[in-house]
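Can anyone check this?
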Amino acid sequence: MVRKIDKESKKITLKHGEIKNLDMPGMTMVFQVKDPAMLDAVKQGDKVQFKVERSGGALVITEMQVAK
């Protein structure tokens, strides 16, 4: 679920469930986005599905869409 969107710094705060490929439990955290245009497609409170990967020591969302 989208908690906060920061377009200036190209970051989004998400409350998420377990992320198995990163061996990460569910929590709320800040992610960078690969493409800043992704932030225009969501709003605070939206439930989203996303793909994230490690890139240069940061967690970067590479795909994101509003969950149906």
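Reply from J.R.: I decoded it. Strands lie at 2-6, 11-16, 27-33, 48-55, 58-66.
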